[in-house]
Amino acid sequence: MKSIRKLDAVVVGAGFGGMYMAYKLREMGLDFVGFEAADDVGGVWYWNRYPGARCDLMSVDYSYGFSREIEQEWTWSEQFAAQPEILAYAKFVADRLNLRPLFQFETRVVSAKWDDDRSLWIVATDKGDVFEATYCIMATGPLSVPKEPEFGPLSNFKGELYRTASWPKENVSFEGKRVGLIGTGSTGIQVVPEVAKEAKELYVFQRTPSFTMPMRNTKFDDEFTSELKRHYPQIRSVAYNSPLGGVRPQSTRPYFSIPLEQRQSLMEDAWKQGGLAFLGTFSDLLINEEANEEVAEFVRGKIRQVVKDPETAEKLIPRGYPIFARRPCLDTHYYEAFNQPNVHLIDCIGNEIERLSDNAVHTQNETVELDALIIATGFDGMTGALLNFEVTGKGGLPLADKWADGASSYLGMMMHGFPNMFLICGPNGPAVLANIISLNEQNVDWICALIDHISETGQHCFEVTQEAEDQWMDEVRSLAELTLVSKAKTWYTGANIQGKPRGLTVYTGGFKRYRDSCDEIAAKGYEPLVLN
Ligand code: NA7
Questions:
Q1: Three-state secondary structure readout of 401-429
Q2: What is the SS3 string spanning 182-237?
Q3: Distance between CA atoms of 149 and 183, rounded to whole angstroms?
């Protein structure tokens, strides 16, 4: 039998959250091990290497701010970085800080169980190793478990099958092939123009159309890069004090505060500018339904302008939910791709995909024969990774039971009944509505300060009270009621997964307000936590 290793902490995941946590724990002199299923760092950017994969946050924001050296040594090549560059950045950071020895790669955690008698976590891996640790830190990411589509099993399809969330490392060629793509969220929207370039025929299976805006990505020149590097401290300061945790454009101007003509011209300008400009044109688009609908109608007009076939344009036009309530997508020639003769839109509304067979996708009304099929049907977001293995808290309470009616947590970082467990960017924090790199850094810094505090008090165990967790959840819910974000069927609310409890599991108060709340709790000596 293998021996049990005793540790101060385990960290699950080597994405941007897990990497920074490992760096900090080493600085603090703690004895810990990180586990990562992939063979290298990068998390979501390790797995999602599909054609066209690109971050929809600006590279300046989507980068660590904790190291002035790394900021100066790393050079981003463009405004919105593509997956290979982001993964290269993660590897660069891992090399630069010598993080890899802190992780066991190609290792999955299969269970994490709280031992009531000894007040520690027992963590087992798929390699048969068992660790005992004071702290269990979940850096498992909000988007790491792909959704299993309802029309499965996928293995029924005998042609080439690709999942965007686990794309092969090798080059994939679609030259001369009939390719199907299922899913038109951010991922599918990035895949379409790329695959359309080489596939003989591309069939896009769309159920809910997304709103997408032109990214109009730009390359950075040397002059811009050196200015950027000179101003990083100011850029970070603006980012950390903003509702988004990033430097994207924001407005304090409510939609109806200016005349129609001016509104139209502002939208035209933002549309031309591209990127996130459109999102920052008015202040109230996620709270004022009427304003939201007018902006949605403007975007619908743009789709009609770009897509030449009016029937296809009408099918691509999103209706029935507020714009920006689903995550807004940024694209590079998505709508234009539908003007190519080899790209075909299959509308799945009233024409659901029923099953896959050897060489075809069967919808209710048609059979589409294919050589290759790409699945871009999204993720079991926010909670999927944590419910993907056995996690049990006090009294053997399974996390799945605690979350049976929906994910509940305190600050998205801890849970009553799960002492000494931390979540990085967990449900009910601002993850996914804020810049996740800023949030990773904020969460890790806050957690590490708490670990220091606990050891200074001579204790070794903390648990948040049920009352504090309930109060936090009340705040999350009441803030959610103020926005339109929960009014669309999305992974934000669990509505994309059959049988998953519904409800917005995201704190909508913004990054700055969240950070202030966390700081206040720390300043008051972590009152909602019981230490022993
Ligand atoms: P999303 O945004 O959840 O999109 C998944 C897409 O897949 C969405 O259009 C779904 O339509 C579609 N889908 C799912 N199941 C089916 C079936 N059965 N038939 C047809 N279409 C289906 O995931 P993404 O990976 O694109 O983006 C996730 C995040 O990554 C994104 O928000 C960014 O943060 C980056 P549905 O809405 O269910 O009708």
A1: HHCCCCCCCECCCEECCECCEEECCCCCC
A2: ECCCHHHHHHHHHHHHHECEEEEEECCCCCEEECCCCECCHHHHHHHHHCHHHHHH
A3: 10
pLDDT at 1 over 80: no
71 closest CA partner among 248, 220, 233, 241:
233
- Residue 92 φ/ψ region, left for φ over 0, alpha for ψ in the -120 to 50 degree band, beta for the rest: alpha
**Chain segment 69-90, per-residue pLDDT in tens:** 999 999 999 999 999 999 999 9
* Ligand 1 pocket residues where CB is under 6 Å: 143, 149-151, 182-188, 205, 207-208, 327, 348, 353, 376-379, 489, 491, 496
Q: How far is the CA of 150 from the centre of ligand 1 (A)?
A: 12
> Residue with structure tokens 């919808």?
363
Span from the CA of 9 to the centroid of ligand 1 (angstroms): 35
- Closest of 66, 77, 333 to residue 189, by C-alpha: 333
Question: Could you read off the pLDDT of 349-408 as tens digits, one per residue?
Answer: 999 999 999 999 999 999 999 999 999 999 999 999 999 999 999 999 999 999 999 999
Residue type, 223: E
Mutate to test the pocket of ligand 1, among 50, 368, 377 (most ligand atoms within 8 A of CB): 377
Distance in Å, CA 357 to ligand 1 centroid: 22
Rounded-to-integer distance, Cα 255 and Cα 437, Å: 30
Q: How is residue 274 written in tokens?
A: 């591209």
Q: Please identify, by atom number, the ligand 1 atom nearest to the C-alpha of residue 496.
A: 38
Bridge-based pairing of strands 32-35 and 103-104 is parallel
Contact 55, 81 (CB under 8 A): yes
Question: What is the 8-class DSSP label of residue 489?
Answer: -
Distance 491 CA to ligand 1 centre (A): 8
Cα(140) to ligand 1 centroid in Å equals 20
- Ligand 1, pocket-test mutation among 150, 187, 374, most atoms within 8 A of CB: 187
- Specify whether the CB–CB gap between 225 and 414 falls below 8 A: no
Q: Could you tell me the distance, in angstroms and rounded to a whole number, from the CA of residue 290 to the centre of ligand 1?
A: 26
| pTM of structure | 0.97
